Amino acid sequence: MATVILDAEVITMDAHTGSTPVPRSIRIEDGVITEIARQVSVSDADTVLNGQGRLVCPGFVNAHTHSWEYLAKGRYDNLPLELWMLYSYPILAQRPLPPELVGLRSRLFAVESVKSGVTTLVDDVLETPGQDFDQLDAVFDAYDEVGVRANISGHVINRPFIETLPYVADWLPEDIVREVRGQAVPTAEEYLAFSTEAFRRYAGRAGGRLRYMVAPSGPQRCTDDLLAGATELAVRHGAECHVHVLETKTQAVTGREFYGTTLVEHMRRIGALSPNTTLAHGVWTTDSDIDTLAEFEVCVSHNPVSNLKLGSGIAPWRRYHDAGVTLGLGSDGCSSSDTPRLHDVIKAAALLHKVTEPDPASWPTVEEVLRAATSGGARTAQLQADVGTLEAGKQADLLIYDLETLAFTPRNRAELQLVYSENGSSLRQVLVAGRVVVDEGRVITVDEDALLAQVRVLLPGIQREQDRVERRNAVFHETFDRMYRECAAQDVGVHRWSGEPVKP
């Protein structure tokens, strides 16, 4: 039995019509779009959806996020990244999260994501003090149940955290330094073995809808052999290698202090760049870095809301486009942006870069922004053959909006209103692989009310544990603040708090 959407306004994001809505009908069989045209075949056995008064577009790809942070949503403010990480990614006193809570956290995150139009998650999952297969299984099981598409990582840091930042190891008390350095960290061999088993374990999961990816946390947080090995492993498996690079000015200083060059150039030297590599953030890249990324066909996931909240800076949107670097859009985690909703990110991306250049010709176009949210995000995730556009042969991951709402009234240019006026309130159905997972604002694959009731019961204990861990890690705060201010005062050759290059 097939599903047919008749007579809708459709944004295909393909090479022919792009972001311009065109009248189309869509036929879906076995989760795949088999026809998309003005008229398609219909039989009596088909499920027919009336598309009149509806806008259909590809499902959004959240190209960088952390479900790990969901339980810390709305907990922190006015902390730059390096200080915020003290509490969201604690160095000391963290206890392993039981798989049952990992599963609940992941279901809540997936539900909020799909309800806002995200059909694909690039979920950079970190568990502290370390990740095991019981925890990773819980994420895969949760996403399988909700019905979302996802790349799910084994995120790894294999250097003592105080050695991933400049200056702090020399400034902290000796007993704290000894305690941190005494913590076990995985070797490159251990992580690559874990990832090799993960690729085997999750191959074909949910019909290929769920995939494992490697995620070295960052070049300054991982040893060179792990970075190079993860890159090779990703290429071998046709998977994404997801790495945080140059998110903050501190990281720009770190590259110079640790390697005498930029972090991108260091990755090039050690063989850690490939077309399978996606850099999360890429705010403080130099012009030379951007040329290198284009040369190696590396993608960048742009996270404007998180970068704004953490004061990290403004990514060079137009420079990336001019160089031919593919951009996706990410929400980042729910503790750094406080939402997994990509509508917020799409509007922020469309608006933010209008204030970084005086020439309107350089400002983001709606076509560029929607492409980053769909086909660009799919490319960053190594899923471009499956999703990101509405075309025959692609997976039927799509969104159906009601055009008879205030957001689209008066109806002028629906693609502009999708970016600037819509916040997800007009979204009526969400399909992933042809399956309806959201209908009239409700996720129909899981019991959302039961999940909310469950987390309400557990929340007091969760928050007591968060309070305990925060008190323990506050010992680093003064030193990390000093380090942040020292780095902020330095000249790194780019000025990305305004988005403009440093003037000679």
UniProtKB/TrEMBL annotation:
Pfam families: Amidohydro_1. Coiled coil: none annotated. The keyword Transport does not apply. InterPro entries: Amidohydro-rel (IPR006680), Metal-dep_hydrolase_composite (IPR011059), Metal_Hydrolase (IPR032466), MTA/SAH_deaminase (IPR050287). Residues 55-437 form the Amidohydrolase-related domain. Keywords: Hydrolase. It comes from the Bacteria. The keyword Hydrolase applies. This is Amidohydrolase family protein.
